[in-house]
């Protein structure tokens, strides 16, 4: 199989999908790997490292997309890459189709096979490729929130942990999954008062146990969300429904009640966001104000730390890429149910129920 690794062109995206060690494994097994020139530089991997691993450096994205059987990316294709789509092409990347109808329709129209990192799901319900990115995004959400609570950045002028004799900032985290847990860990480490809301009592018990009662756990419903957001200095949205659009839990009215200088960090923005006032931003222009509240809604938070996030992503995503290259995606999906759940589109049909429901597009049951 010919595997293509393009340079990411989404705004402020510095990660690369395959690191040189992955190229070495693929080439030793007889596959060809095309790497676009400078694709790995942002993550600390020079072209020479890919050449030494057996890869071929190509100068243009056009050549790479034309020659590759499978294109392995980090983020979803952006509009200027749609022209490369063709029947029979396989794209393996974070796709977040539930929040992007235009991309979905283009993939279907061109009959591209699309395998989404974020919907590959193991039997225990875990999302193995999403986990390391959620860990990073959760931790970075608190870094960003702490920065924008500072007065020079438009915040209330609060230090998360305060100092003896002063009040600590209140951090409210919506969703106690991987991102929420890591956000709570960072916020606690900085000394904030932390509340986590979730609809799973099992998850709340788990968080209460691992944090030794230091985190206040609250069952999530419209009343508790409203009251918690109103009393928060920093709200972190980390809600996830695999493949589907994120439900809007926080209304604009709730946001306005946080008061001037409050901060919202919506990690779930790439799936549509769980805050009504959310809209995607970039690392270059990360924030905007609504009713005096700063919103940090960067859609690729881990992209800011590529030397950490690129290897972490590759560790999780590469084993599935290798299975696809070795046996073809149909055989690989027949053997691996987790990978099968990652197939969002094939032969012009949308094959993920959550994406179909979110976009109002007809769902087709996957038949391999």
End-to-end separation in angstroms reads 19 Å
CATH superfamily of the largest domain: NAD(P)-binding Rossmann-like Domain
Strand order in space, largest sheet? 3-2-1-4-5-6-14-15
Q: Which residue ranges are poorly predicted, with pLDDT under 50 across at least 5 consecutive positions?
A: none
Structural class: alpha/beta
Average residue-wise pLDDT:
96
Give the count of helical stretches. Answer: 12
What is the CATH first-level class name of the largest domain? Alpha Beta
Largest sheet: 8 strands, mixed
What letter string, H or E per element, gives the SSE order? EHEHEHEEHEHEHEHEHEHEEEHHEEH
Shape: globular
Return the CATH topology of the largest domain: Rossmann fold
Rounded radius of gyration (Å)? 21 Å
- CATH architectural label of the largest domain: 3-Layer(aba) Sandwich
Secondary structure: helix percent: 25-40%
Strand tally is: 15
The figure for the number of domains is 2
Beta-strand share of residues: 15-25%
């Amino acid at each position: 199989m010919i595997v293509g690794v393009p340079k990411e062109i989404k705004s402020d995206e510095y990660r690369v999908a395959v690191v040189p060690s992955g190229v070495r494994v693929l080439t030793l097994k007889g596959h060809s790997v095309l790497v676009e020139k400078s694709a790995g530089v942002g993550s600390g991997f020079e072209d020479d490292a890919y050449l030494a691993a057996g890869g071929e450096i190509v100068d243009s994205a056009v050549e790479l997309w034309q020659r590759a059987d499978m294109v392995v990316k980090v983020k979803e294709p952006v509009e200027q890459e749609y022209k490369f789509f063709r029947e029979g092409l396989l794209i393996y990347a974070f796709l977040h189709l539930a929040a992007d109808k235009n991309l979905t329709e283009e993939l279907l129209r061109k009959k591209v096979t699309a395998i989404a990192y974020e919907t590959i799901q193991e039997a225990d319900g875990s999302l193995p490729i999403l986990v390391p990115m959620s860990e990073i995004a959760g931790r970075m959400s608190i870094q960003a929130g702490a920065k924008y609570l500072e007065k020079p950045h438009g915040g209330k002028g609060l230090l998360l942990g305060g100092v003896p004799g002063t009040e600590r900032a209140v951090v409210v985290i919506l969703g106690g999954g991987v991102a929420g847990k890591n956000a709570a860990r960072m916020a606690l480490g900085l000394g904030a008062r932390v509340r986590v809301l979730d609809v799973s009592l099992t998850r709340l018990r788990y968080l209460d146990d691992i944090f030794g009662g230091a985190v206040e756990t609250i069952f999530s419903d419209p009343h508790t969300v409203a009251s918690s957001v109103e009393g928060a200095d920093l709200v972190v949205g980390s809600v996830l429904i695999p493949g589907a659009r994120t439900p809007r839990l926080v209304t604009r009215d709730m946001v306005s009640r946080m008061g001037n200088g409050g901060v919202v960090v919506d990690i779930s923005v790439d799936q549509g966001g769980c805050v009504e006032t959310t809209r995607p931003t970039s690392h270059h222009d990360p924030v905007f104000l609504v009713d005096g509240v700063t919103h940090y809604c960067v859609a690729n938070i881990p992209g800011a730390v590529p030397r950490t996030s690129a290897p972490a992503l590759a560790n999780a995503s590469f084993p599935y890429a290798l299975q696809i290259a070795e046996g073809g995606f149909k055989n690989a999906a027949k053997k691996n149910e987790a990978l099968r759940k990652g197939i969002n589109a094939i032969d012009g049909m949308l094959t993920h129920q959550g994406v179909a429901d979110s976009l109002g597009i007809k769902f087709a049951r996957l038949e391999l």
